[in-house]
Sequence to fold (887 residues):
Amino acid sequence: MNDLATPPSPTVSTSPAETASPPPAPTVVRRLDYRPPAWLVPDIALDFALSLDSTRVTSRLRIERNPDAEPETTLRLDGDGLAVASLSIDGQLRNDWRMDGSDLLIDLAGDAHDLVIETVVNPAANTQLSGLYASNGMLCTQCEAEGFRRITFFPDRPDVLSRYHVRMSGDKAAFPVLLSNGNPVAQGDNADGSHWAEWDDPWPKPSYLFALVAGELLANRASFTTRSGRDVSLAIFVRPGDETRTDHAMRSLIASMTWDEDAYGREYDLDDFNIVAVSDFNAGAMENKGLNVFNTRYILADPETATDGDYDAIEGVVGHEYFHNWSGNRVTCRDWFQLSLKEGFTVLRDQQFSAERGSPPVKRIEDVRILRGSQFPEDSGPLAHPIRPDSYQEISNFYTATVYNKGAEVIRMMTVMAGPDAFRKGTDLYFDRHDGEAATCEDFIKAIEDGAGLDLTQFRRWYEQAGTPRIEAEAVHHPATQSVTLTLRQTVPATPGQPDKQPMPIPLRTALFDRATGKHHGEQLLLLTDAEQSFTFAGYDTPPVLSINRGFSAPVAIATQLPTADLLFLAEHDDDPFARYEAMQQLVVQHLVAAVTGQLDASALERGRREIGEAFAAILADSGLDDLMRGELVILPGEGYLSEQLAVNEPARIHAEREALKAWLGQHLGTEWRALHDRCAAVPYSLEAAARGARKLKTQALVYLAAGDPAEAVRRAKAQYDAADCMTDRQGALMTLCGLDDPAREEALADFHDRFAGNALVIDKWFSLQAGSLNPKAIEHTKALATHPDFTMTNPNRVRSLYMAFAANPQAFNAASGEGYRIIADLIIALDPINGSTAARFVSPLGRWKKMEPGRAKLMRAELERIAATPGLSRDTTEQVQRSLAG
Ligand code: TRP
Ligand code: ZN
Fold:
């Protein structure tokens, strides 16, 4: 983003730094180079004179030498695209400062000074959405990770903690609501009709947690009393008109506050907790102290416009940001290499919260599906990195499924090994020991060791080594001793920069089932610590059925093929719901991998389909299952996950075989799907689990019917669309119609667009459904949508709704012509100058060329080369493309 080819810089340049500096050579930041800051900033007072295109920022810093750092005679303050409008030190105006690239350098003697720096920024021109920017006439900030330096010069690193005092003034009509972190302390009117407000945050915090919002906003208000009796005013601010869709978010917030007290003993620590929803946002949401800022998609919901999945996502993200108040804010990160300290732990906490609010096994299955769908591919591709990376060029590129989701799995393994009570002792010690500090992953591990009484010496490898461990399991029955020997072998694959790996400690919840009784003799937690290890089980007179990695106790791949009979047994009998799901997945994976690699003749193919069909029929008929769980068990493994199981990726064959299996299941279980659709369609709308389960199955039935009996699917989807009283049903029906070649498709799409015109989040769905569709013309549809009047490159939600859906559409993206790759490369090149961090997120789909069949691999590389050759690329995109090409 520091280059000449980018569009107007979001800042107004004023003297004396008139000439733009040349783009700096890519600098690599290394974890082991960490040095404590030479100067600390105990206090900062910020004064904003707000305006959409020219906001004047006056920053008063109290700076003090850090007694624990090497003394430096020069103070270096980070800046990004800023110019100094004025600078004074201890009350004296000065011009003996200099720029080093975008940083401000000041030579300083003495141990403490008062600095005043003025800068001017242009929020309306800030399309990167980092720093201070405008969204629909309102002003807001996003400072994580390095956005504060786009507002004012500052030591913009998370180990510099300051008390913030914020004053802002601006036009009363344009900005009636003025918000910042902490507590409101004063407000008033100016003589010229403008007004002002002051906020004070008593908790020292790093600059990435600073936030300011100013605009025309309405609040949904509620209150919460903490268990020690503090009354907290809660408010969710949205644009006028949206306040009717904030109740679910408010309920989720209150539930989060209660849960963190119960589950982790964590109370809220201010008198106010504010949330603001904005429609232009680079990520999901941001945990700024006392002032969370959210993407509207994780706040706004009502039954007509939000699906059950949206409701769940809102609850999870509201919880996630709230939980950061302790895991992230009260205890923050020393440097950005420690990102998983706050993100991995907070994802685990939001997963635990959502599990308790809904169905724990269904939530576990969903979390594992996300891990396998995004993190496993990342871990086996060119962008693989440990949950605590060793180096980066641009930290925005490391907000990844690995740091977040694998990070959560790593801490979850600690809970499995310690048990919940001991783990809680560990987290209590962690929060107690490091409250108010900027901590490291090592601090967390040590606190869990000390508090929970675990030895995590070898376990630290989970922080150091990238790559998904592969486990092979072999169970040998010894009739003479009526015992079983289970031999486990692990390999951790080589990843970029890490050719050789050490064995990891892998906790595997395991049970051996007696075929005759259908029962096991008690689950055991096996800890595999070596490359190869054997475990003996007594008391089996016949060969048992192995159920391993139950509940997905470790984020590993089990490479061993189980006999089909054993998988069918587990799918029906395992008392661990996750293991039942896993057996179903494995049954389908083994069949499809064999089919794709040409190992099945016609009769073996038919036999395999019949076995899967019988397992499906049993699940559809099993009265012991609830519908939410039934819905999980009938979801086929995705094409991405299937491609991970192959030595060479053949996307067209995977797609064809998987669709053929779906069609077979649609035809041979046609009666069952129709009966299921009828039964579920009769369940009235509510947010209860039974009704949600019915809705999930209703659309699943349509998915199979669409593959096996398209005419019947069109009839039913049309009826479901017309009768829909909620978005879950309407979207499921529209998705089905979108995939089929029938006039009903265009009619429904037109109706949907009309019905929800002006509702940006629903129009996003309209784009996604078409770009992500099974329809053979999905490429043409996507190209046409890119020129639709509702499409815009400046709103990340809209860009993602079209192009992320497209990149995740296996058959369209992987078209043999390479057109799908070209579309994504064109997007990256066009989006990069507007929003580099969002553009960079589209590189990874193109990066998986190494395992691809040679024709497509060449096309993918060619697109990466074309992006790399584009002049003036952002640091974000440059880094991702370089890494992807290196392989
Ligand atoms: N810290 C935020 C979270 O996980 C996410 C985040 C990181 C973010 N960087 C961002 C949000 C940039 C918006 C923009 O909760
Ligand atoms: Zn987070």
User: Anything to note?
Assistant: The first strand starts at residue 29 and ends at 30. The two ends are 24 Å apart (CA to CA).
